Amino acid sequence: MPTPSAPHVTPSATSTPGPHDLPDVSRLVVGVLGGTGPQGRGLAYRLGRAGQQVVIGSRDAERARTAATGLDIPGVRGADNTETARDSDVVIIAVPWEGHSEQLEHLRGELAGKIVVDCVNPLGFDKQGAYALKPHEGSAAQQAALLLPDSRVTAAFHHLSAVLLLDQAVERIDTDVMVLGDDRESAATVQALAARVPGMRGIYAGRLRNAHQVESLVANLISVNRRYKAHAGLRVTDV
Amino acid sequence: MPTPSAPHVTPSATSTPGPHDLPDVSRLVVGVLGGTGPQGRGLAYRLGRAGQQVVIGSRDAERARTAATGLDIPGVRGADNTETARDSDVVIIAVPWEGHSEQLEHLRGELAGKIVVDCVNPLGFDKQGAYALKPHEGSAAQQAALLLPDSRVTAAFHHLSAVLLLDQAVERIDTDVMVLGDDRESAATVQALAARVPGMRGIYAGRLRNAHQVESLVANLISVNRRYKAHAGLRVTDV
């Protein structure tokens, strides 16, 4: 309840941006490479359900179309990876870490000029559970940035539970999405995309050089899930 | 409201442990090495305010006593690092990363048999902000475990804002503490300590080999704080 006598609480054009001061992204087409895996399908489902036009990409166009049809959301269709990249404004990379560099190199031309959102978590698994792999380039996102010099690479959507994303009975995804990027405008676009999903916020969380810990924190969330039989995510407090 | 006809919602001895099923730690003495810095003083203040016996440690006993007196909490006293380690059941390591290995080696004998809680974040800073340093041993916590083979090393308390911890007007610290450790009993003790502070929960978040990303995520929280003028922390959702 701002009053003239309390100008210090009146919002102004120069006030600190909140996580909701973001561009309108409702008309952007979002592609999801590796969109037939659980994480990719989950993201496609939630963004499509929020009204976004989404293209699920796969090396096999038929598999992509089957996955899209399975989600039963009007705005979600399937295509091969090349067409997906070409037809999208924003392209989410949800491929397995094992094929990451190869697939990005292959699509370098189609991804030029696009906002790329890497959500890959390089992890290893053994008897004691999950552990972080350290990519030579520092992180999956930094590898993407090196392989795609003409794209605007960001990193986000690492800490979401595919189980919750794909559960039609779940109305809200009460989890924050840490968005990393060296280009402020691209990061804001990705934050805005995250904010399209009810319950979700896109929180700017630093430059790509700080992506490794965000990616590998998934190993810790897997430990949390095992211990508490949960589908853990993260909220950033005080924002 | 469990009823005989709904046994699946009735809590039982075999149900999944929640973050509140923890040992009673109210009689343990907690030492804080590096307790004169903001993070150390903040933790000492919050634990002392929660009724814990706390010893603030410093290389200079007089500085430690001054810091303890400044907090104005009956259960908090100051001592040199050696006495602090010797007199405590649980010892929090809150020294700067630069002196970490040296100080731990020096106190190896006094820390034998104790639960050690490493909360050190190895970070570098430049014009673009904070970035993760990668210790040779993998993380500060793993370095501690190697240097203190006779201690029970855990890692926790990385993501707390010293500003909030030290603000006497702040009643609750609404942030979760990720607790890492290879020994379940030690981790549970540290989780219980965290849970002594109103608003705080101690969440088991994996083994020490997954400490690096938890430590270095502080670089991301610093970016969050800059962008949103916040004192950001984390909550684990669905637990």
Task: Report the strand count of chain A.
Answer: 11
Spatial extent as radius of gyration of chain A: 18 Å
Q: Which homologous superfamily in CATH is the superfamily of chain A?
A: NAD(P)-binding Rossmann-like Domain
**Approximately what portion of the residues of chain A adopt beta-strand conformation?**
15-25%
* CATH top level label of chain A: Alpha Beta
List the chains of the largest interface with their residue counts: A-B, 47 and 47 residues
How is the CATH topology of chain A named?
Rossmann fold
Discrete helix count of chain A = 9
Order of helices and strands of chain A: EHEHEHEHHEEEHEHEHEHE
Distance, first to last CA of chain A: 20 Å
In total, the number of domains of chain A comes to 1
Shape of chain A: globular
Rounded average pLDDT of chain A = 93
Weakly predicted, low-confidence segments of chain A = 1-14
CATH architecture group name of chain A: 3-Layer(aba) Sandwich
Assembly state of the chains shown: homodimer
Largest sheet of chain A: 8 strands, mixed
Query: What percent of residues of chain A adopt helix (DSSP H or I)?
Result: 25-40%
Tell me the strand order in the biggest sheet of chain A.
3-2-1-4-5-8-9-10
Secondary structure class of chain A reads alpha/beta
Written account of the structure:
- 2 copies of one chain form a homodimer.
- Chain A is α/β, with parallel strands linked by helices and 239 residues long.
- Chain A has a single domain (29-228), classed as Rossmann fold, CATH 3.40.50.720.
- Chain A has 9 helices and 11 strands.
- Chain A has helices spanning 38-49, 61-71, 81-87, 100-106, 108-111, 140-147, 162-166, 184-195, 211-228, and strands spanning 29-33, 53-58, 76-80, 90-93, 115-118, 123-126, 129-132, 152-155, 176-181, 201-204, 233-237.
- The first copy, chain A, has an 8-stranded mixed beta sheet. The first copy, chain A, has a two-stranded antiparallel sheet with strand order 6-7.
- In chain A, helix 8 (184-195) links the parallel strand 9 and strand 10.
- In chain A, helix 4 packs parallel to helix 6.
- The first copy, chain A, is globular and about 40 Å long.
- Chain A starts with 28 loop residues before the first strand and ends with a strand.
- The interface between A and B is large, with 47 and 47 residues.
- Strand 11 (233-237) of chain A pairs antiparallel with strand 11 (233-237) of chain B.
